[in-house]
Amino acid sequence: MSSITLIGTGNMARTIGALAVAGGNTVEVMGRDQAKADDLAEALGGGATTGKWGTVPAGDIVITALLYDGVVPVVAEYGAALAGKVIVDISNPFNATFDGLAHGEETSIAQEVAKVAPAGASVVKAFNTIFRGVLEKGRPDVFFAGDDAQAKADVAAFVKSLGLRPLDVGGLRMAHWLEGMGVVTVGLAGNGVGHGDFALGVNEFAG
Fold first, then answer.
1. Burial of residue 1, with CB atoms counted within 10 A of its CB: 0-12 exposed, 13-18 middle, 19 or more buried
2. Cα(61)–Cα(88) distance, rounded to whole angstroms?
3. What confidence score (pLDDT) does residue 99 get?
4. Under a CB-based contact definition with an 8 Å cutoff, are residues 201 and 181 in contact?
5. Sequence-separated (6 or more) residues with CB below 8 Å from residue 146
6. Which residues, listed in sequence order, are joined to residue 88 by a DSSP beta bridge?
7. What is the rounded distance in angstroms from the CA atom of residue 15 to the CA atom of residue 111?
8. Which residues of the chain have pLDDT under 50?
9. Strand pairing of 141-146 and 122-126?
10. Within a 10 A sphere around the Cβ of 147, how many other Cβ atoms?
């Protein structure tokens, strides 16, 4: 099983944390508000602990469960404390109308994280194409992207421990297109599907 640290105390941190505990993983929670971090760890149970904001995370995999505009600044703030860690960015940088990305370039939050991450850290994009409610009660495919093969293998093993199927879409440049898939998911929820109780996935057809 994996050891993970959740940076953030919001809904996605709670959902991923609950799945991680149920999957037998070791979970640590970090938040700017220590009381909220303590409350979340207690709610998760399973021996979940808390760490002090900005210190070296206990988890080998560090999930930044934050709004997109806070991810890069927080990784920069943690700095050398994240050396040697696998940093998982789950954010979606939606524009104000939720029909495009907040950044105009062919980049991603994960790629921008890689620019400020310390030496020895690896960045993986994952979980951003899944609505929280589906993650709570469904078994969606989890698409992920990254440049480091071992980091991706570690994330894939963690995803499998949650009872979900990991699907590698390639190098970190593909994180831009995963963020685009997040936009497509929101578009489907508001139009063709009409609700959020679904997830994008892969069906394989033989012959």
1. exposed
2. 7
3. 95
4. no
5. 110, 122, 123, 124, 125, 152, 155, 171, 172, 175
6. 63, 124
7. 25
8. none
9. antiparallel
10. 18
Cα Rg for the chain, rounded, in angstroms?
A: 16
Which region, left, alpha or beta, applies to residue 105 given φ > 0 means left and ψ of -120 to 50 means alpha? beta
Would you give the end-to-end CA distance of the chain in angstroms?
Answer: 36
Q: What CA–CA distance (Å, rounded) separates 64 from 34? A: 16
Question: What span, in angstroms and rounded, lies between the C-alpha atoms of 64 and 188?
Answer: 26
Burial of 40 (0-12, 13-18, 19+ CB in 10 A): buried
Nearest to 22 by CA among 39, 51, 5, 47: 47
Residue with tokens 């941190």: 13
**SS in 3 state form for the chain?**
CCEEEEECCCHHHHHHHHHHHHCCCEEEEECCCHHHHHHHHHHHCCCCEECCCCCCCCCCEEEECCCHHHHHHHHHHHHHHHCCCEEEECCCCECCCCCCECCCCCCCHHHHHHHHCCCCCEEEEECCCCCHHHHHHCCCEEEEEECCHHHHHHHHHHHHHCCCEEEECCCHHHHHHHHHHHHHHHHHHHCCCCCCCCCCCCCCCCC
